[in-house]
Amino acid sequence: MPIYEYQCEDCGKQFELLIRNTSENNEPKCIHCGSPKIVRKLSAFAVKNDSGSSSSSCPTGTCPYSS
Length: 67
Known about the structure:
By secondary structure, the protein is mainly β. 0% of the residues lie in helices and 27% in strands.
């Protein structure tokens, strides 16, 4: 079940939603104001390497979005 990041076009807040079933025709709404005017954002992701530790999606580690 993927978690998607969204931004509301009405209130401007960002939030995440767990999408349980993509075949359902439920349109997601802003969890803050209830607006249906939301935009899915491009999310960063982590990958698991052979040693079992997680790493950033930025291979050099110099991305401004890494924590």
